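User: Can you predict the 3D structure for this chain?
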Amino acid sequence: MTAFLLTNYRLRLAMGCLLAFPCLVAGQDSFGQPTGATQNGGGTRPAGPRGPVEQAAPSGLEAELVRMEPLERRDMKVPPTAVLHSGAMHGPTPTSIPGGRLVTTREIYEMVRRTRGDRSSAPRSFDILGGQERLPGALAAVPAGQAGSFDDPTQREFGQFLQDVTQGRKDLPMIFYCASYECWLSYNASLRAIKLGYTNVLWYRGGLEAWKHARLPMDTPDGGQGPGAGPQR
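Assistant: Here is the predicted structure, written as structure tokens:
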């Protein structure tokens, strides 16, 4: 019975990907850890965003991050909603999220630098896209982006996953991202976390596209880090 339920869950997720948004990596149908994450007492301990805190800001980076903010907050005339999005996952998104907060690349960069070395307050980041590249230390949480309800199997599995990651702390800053400001997957994941009672949910609307545009470090498939393919200066 367990095997049947798991197979059915994966089938439903695969169909959701085909109908809603292109899945970039086959098999991204579970909650998991990034290369380099460690296990502690059975709970997952994400490494957290690393790159930006290991060196001073390169010349021009902070100015570029400020310049990007209006684009990341671009109003696409879509009202916020507290209900899981069930339409096409690629499309215009709101500029706010009930119970959470939209954050920009600049805000994440500054947050990570400010909490350098302080694991108790450092943000945890969650990749809801499932591609070959991730923000440094981001944990895979692809199923959390799918439509459904706040009492479905995905919600229960996601709740257990977040319990392990946070060790039960509801106040930890949690960053959810997907492709860009035209991707609903991270919005759904953020709503699911909010519904589970997490009080510091940060929806990174600009997502991977904005991070790469700023040329910030990323985790790559070989376990190393590489710069994004940002604009030429």
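Residues 133 and 220 are 5 Å apart (CA to CA). Residues 2-222 form a domain with the Oxidized Rhodanese; domain 1 fold (CATH 3.40.250.10).
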